[in-house]
Amino acid sequence: MITWMIVVGWVSRGVLVLLLGLSVWSIAIMFDRFRVFRELSRRDLSDDAIQWIRSKDWAELARWAGEKKGIRCGTIRAALDVKTADPELIDRAVRSFIAGERSFMEGGLTTLATLGSNAPFIGLFGTVLGIIQAFGVLGNSQYNSTAVMQGISEALVATAVGLFVAIPAVIAYNVFTRKMRVLLSECDSLRDLYISCVSEKTELPQVGR
Fold first, then answer.
1. How many domains does the chain have?
2. Largest alpha-carbon pair distance within the chain?
3. Residue 88: inside a domain
4. What is the pLDDT of residues 149-204, one digit of tens each?
5. Nearest to 106 by CA among 53, 40, 188
């Protein structure tokens, strides 16, 4: 009985260590995704690009796409690199670029979603183990109420830590997912506008690197 209670106690502590490790992992992913989205969504004067596309100022558009950084100008670079006005080829090139960027942006988001949905259950598991340990003390003929209450309070800490891991992960996942949707939507709009304005007779310049 004593050996079994010792095992339960160590497993309960192991759950807390696991949750703390998951918390550090989650925070590291958040900082990494923040850096990634900051780089991808940096101000690259997309409003000017829209005006250049509408006015068919391809030289200025190519200069902008070659000098600036960000996913929007990357979309225009992908379109200009086709060196043709064929809508289907442009669409394929831009879709391929966007698919690669989407895969890059999604890195770590699945982990955040998994932590957000499962961390509370891991914490609950630790709480259950802690309560089992507390009741084991209660079944001892030499127990005292202080030890039992202390055991239950320590058990509830696991649930609190689980929520501490899950809530920021869910919030971060929703924020980054929304940022990704907005960026991809803007890229789709630029692609469609470019295709609608470019013509077969257009002489497209070389994108500067």
1. 1
2. 94
3. yes
4. 766 777 788 888 889 899 999 999 999 999 999 888 888 888 888 888 886 545 55
5. 40
Instruction: Please report whether residue 8 resides in a domain.
Output: yes
The first and second tokens of residue 41, run together, are 């969504």
Which of helix, strand or coil describes residue 43?
coil
The Cα–Cα gap between 65 and 77 comes to 6
Is residue 203, in this structure, part of any structural domain at all? no
User: Which residues span the domain enclosing 86?
Assistant: 2-197
Which residue's structure tokens are 């209670």? Answer: 5
Q: Is the pTM higher than 0.85?
A: no
Residue 32, in any domain of the structure: yes
Distance of CA 52 to the CA centre of its chain: 33
Query: Using CA atoms, how far apart are residues 140 and 95, in angstroms rounded to an integer?
Result: 67
Which residue shows structure tokens 């949707």?
A: 181
Number of residues written out for the chain: 209
pLDDT tens profile 80-93: 888 777 888 888 99
pLDDT digits (tens, 9 = 90+) for 9-33: 677 778 888 888 999 999 999 999 9
Q: How far is CA 182 from CA 71, 102, 175, in A?
A: 11, 12, 11
Cα–Cα distance for residue pair 30/44, rounded to 1 Å: 24
How many other CB atoms are there within 10 angstroms of residue 105's CB atom? 22
